[in-house]
Design goal:
- Helices cover 29% and strands 12% of the residues.
- With 440 residues, it is an alpha/beta fold.
- It has a single domain, classed as Alkaline Phosphatase, subunit A, CATH 3.40.720.
- It has a seven-stranded mixed beta sheet, sandwiched between helices. Strands 1-2 form a two-stranded antiparallel ribbon. It has a two-stranded antiparallel ribbon with strand order 3-4.
- The longest helix has 24 residues.
- It is globular and about 65 Å long.
- It starts with 9 loop residues before the first strand and ends in a 24-residue tail after the last helix.
């Protein structure tokens, strides 16, 4: 192997007295023997997805009976049975309210994704991770929604809330449209329009200090948040002016046409599967390393075709089947959620990277709004992680605690993703304890 070459090697020369450089395509000598890591530049980058569904699973029917390795998922999580070797299940954890009035379907997501039940302005876990691993990609993060709406559970602050893209066709154009740069292409020409926009931002950023001198504290905070967004945009534009690093597993996604959007289960599932494939390809092509997906809102109003009864309505109004011990329609909807999650994981597992897959360098965090949708309980909230984050996490474990704060899972994931954080959460949900059983 020619050790003087690496994935950033270029051919330099002169043309009409001007220095020129030409990047090289991905070569075998840039990768290790297995093709799953860069030979000279370390492992392929970690990826993270926050995957949310409302109304969780039926208590007592999703938890494994075996603690530790070699567990089997409960019957209402059976769609994930094929992925148990790469999945961790966390049971027995709860959210502490600390005298804060419970928000029926809002406290759970805030606790799982923000570490708090009272301060909803805190950044969500996907954005905290994006601050660490999302700063050198074209998209700092991508957010999608599957039920036809744009609301999502991703935010940087009280006012910087990330909308979820509901239309897979629009997501396709955003990722793989005219601005997409194939990381494995031999040639690269910066877009002149990008160069102009980058120059404009560079010209105004020096005015910031002078501007804020005469502002009050609240306006200073707002301007700082605004310039933070501009800096993120400037960083993105700078990235678009550079030739992307080659990625062997990158294959441009096939064109996606518009599909029916809405809250009918079949429509939401079809939208979800397109979003899953697009996000997986986006990460394989180095367009982003962080994403958030919302299958359904915390007050999930997905419904069967032809019915006005929603998932949420069934959790409160359907009688428990005396023979089964649970609500049959609720089981149907929770199974739909489990099947969708399994399809999302399969989209990542299907992208091969040498002897490994995209899933092996990713962590997918499943979260929901509570432990029992019927009673709005915040006890025993289902939490899952799938994927090992490039070996940062062990997998194939069922970890059960006796009422520990749910924030332990989020802290574990953030540390596995490389976030420099020693504790996370507020008041009684604050923790400095990771789930050591799954930390590599």
């Amino acid at each position: 192997m020619n050790t003087s070459l690496n994935r950033r090697s270029v051919l330099r020369g002169m043309l009409s007295g001007t220095a020129v450089t030409v990047g090289l395509p991905l070569l075998d000598c840039f990768l290790n023997a297995n093709g799953d890591a860069l030979a000279a530049g370390g492992p392929l980058p970690k990826c993270f997805v926050s995957w949310f569904q409302g109304l969780g699973f039926v208590p007592g029917y999703w938890e494994p009976k075996v603690i530790g390795e070699n567990y089997q998922v409960g019957p209402h999580l059976r769609a994930m049975a094929a992925h148990t070797k790469k999945m961790n299940v966390y049971s027995g954890m709860k959210l502490f309210l600390d005298q804060t009035p419970a928000n029926a379907h809002g406290s759970g997501p805030a606790g799982c994704l923000q570490g708090s039940v009272g301060n909803l302005s805190l950044p969500t876990i996907d954005q905290l991770i994006a601050d660490t691993i999302g700063t050198r990609t074209r998209f700092r993060s991508l957010e999608v929604s599957c039920d036809g709406g744009t609301d999502a559970f991703s935010r940087r602050s009280a006012t910087a809330i990330n909308a979820g893209e509901p239309d897979p066709a629009k997501l396709y154009l955003r990722i793989f449209g005219p601005d997409f740069k194939d990381p494995n292409a031999a040639d690269f020409t910066p877009d002149p329009q990008v160069m102009v926009r980058e120059s404009v931002l560079s010209g105004i950023k020096d005015k910031r200090e002078k501007l804020i001198q005469n502002l009050g504290a609240m306006d200073k905070a707002r301007v700082d948040e605004y310039f933070t967004s501009l800096r993120a945009l400037e960083n993105r534009l700078q990235i678009e002016l550079e030739k992307p690093a080659p990625l062997e597993s990158c294959v441009m996604h096939a064109k996606v046409d518009s599909v029916p959007l809405g809250k009918v289960v079949e429509e939401a599932r079809a939208t979800h599967n397109l979003h899953a494939s697009l996000l997986a390809h986006a990460m394989a092509c180095g367009q982003t390393q962080v994403a958030h997906l919302k299958l359904g809102a915390s007050t999930c109003d997905l419904r069967r075709r032809g019915s006005q009864q929603t998932y949420h309505m069934y959790t409160h109004e359907e009688a428990i089947d005396p023979a089964l011990g649970y609500q049959k329609e609720v089981e149907y909807f929770s199974n739909q959620s489990a099947e969708a999650l399994a399809e999302f994981v399969t989209a990542f597992e299907s992208i091969r990277e040498g002897e490994r897959t995209l899933l092996d360098r990713s962590v997918i965090l499943y979260s929901t709004d509570g432990g029992n949708a019927r009673t709005h309980s915040l006890e025993n909230i289902p939490m899952l992680t799938i994927g090992g984050g490039n070996g940062a996490m062990k997998t194939g474990m069922h970890v059960r605690t006796n009422g520990d704060p749910i924030t332990r899972v989020g802290l574990t994931v953030m540390q596995a993703m490389g976030v420099s954080i020693g504790q996370w959460g507020t008041v009684s949900n604050q923790t400095s304890k990771t789930v050591t059983d799954v930390m590599a």
